[in-house]
Amino acid sequence: MSASGLTQLEFDQQHLWHPYTNVARPGPTFVVKESEGVHITLDDGTRLIDAMSSWWCMMHGHKNPAITKAIHDQLDTLPHVMFGGLTHDPAIDLGRKLLEITPDSLTRIFYCDSGSVSVEVAMKMAVQYQHAIGQPARKEFATIRSGYHGDTWKAMSVCDPDTGMHHLFQGALCVQHFVSRPPIRIHEDWIDDPAQNGLGELRQVLEASAQKIAAFILEPVVQGTGGMYFYHPEYLNQARAMCDELGILLIFDEIATGFGRTGELFATGFCRVEPDIICLGKGLTGGHISFACTMTNDRVAEGIGGGNPGLFMHGPTYMGNPLACAAAKASLDLLTGQNWRGTVSAIAEQMRAEMAPARDLPNVADVRVLGAIGVIEMKHHVSADEAHARVHEMGVFLRPFGTNIYTMPPFITAPDQLSEITAGMLRLAREL
């Protein structure tokens, strides 16, 4: 049959490759016709609550009028122009806003395309900085187990090499330095003993390879795709001091944790310290257009400028895209113009209460909530395909991964809609 004779879904199944799928067995896929607020509407008219915020980015919901207006207005004047030797108001205005809300020491902003690219940029910054200050052997990275930093080549090298999604590429990727994930959870009492809090192992690895390591990169407080694990921020406070002692930069990957998701504006807010480099993406534009940025301090930026070749060697074609900058500025204005902390706190409180019955289910290993992140961890792998087969009945789109049934709902989710989400999670926990 020619492609012209295929239905839309048939064409999709035969020709379009979706993320993390087997083209021979693609699993249930739904055609979305429109979206608004917390809902996506399928081609058969079914409305589903998007409990995933479309992979954690639609914090203001779909088709937010302020963000779409900003994109429309920008489209009429300047859709795109190269950022090499040129600049524009949307990039500058967004930069001003970012400096208002991010950690004070992070004064230099590098715009890029996506979260994975933001990590690539951060890693390149770290290596080029070390080279510029006379440490050219520092080209490797340390990180913690169960982390996830993206699907691009260098980012994959700091994802967990054994349990992560990219383990089959080991041997092709650079070999990095891994330590156990921080063992003390966020709501547990901190233990000062380095043998028990993970810092003893971290010191051992960093000291053994200090002359090779450019930076220590990790997701602060919340490990996202690596397992939705929440750990104690004191680990980060003491890791910062250790990195300073050994001349190692500290990179926080806040792509998933940024912009209020954890209950702090950034997960860095749980700490007493700030990183040398931070990666931002996902919620930056409220999910309306792909965009990301990497921010660093003057020490790193000026260090790179003072070395050879004196230029930071990265420059995406769509860097600083005006449409994306306008969307991001509108999204951040929406966030900071409301009581986002109260909103996220209310979501957290309701999820804790409504997800609590899952603790009594025999196959549930743990139930945890932090900010607008709710997780039911099972004792076995949970099939996303089997979850998708139930979405029409539940009226909620949930996409489990690994052993986790989780939600990161839009911040605009109403209490009754959130109850539908938690009811769907409990149903999946009982049935899958």
Unreliable stretches (pLDDT < 50, length at least 5) are none
Q: State the total count of DSSP E strands.
A: 16
Structural class: alpha/beta
Number of contiguous helices:
15
What's the arrangement of strands in the largest beta sheet? Answer: 4-12-11-10-7-5-6
Percent helix, as a range, is 25-40%
User: How large a portion of the residues is in β-strands, by DSSP E?
Assistant: 15-25%
How does the overall form come out from the CA principal axes?
Answer: globular
Instruction: Please describe the biggest sheet, giving its number of strands, its sense, and whether it closes into a barrel.
Output: 7 strands, mixed
What is the average of the pLDDT values? Answer: 96
Ends apart, CA distance between termini? 37 Å
Radius of gyration, Cα only, in angstroms? 22 Å
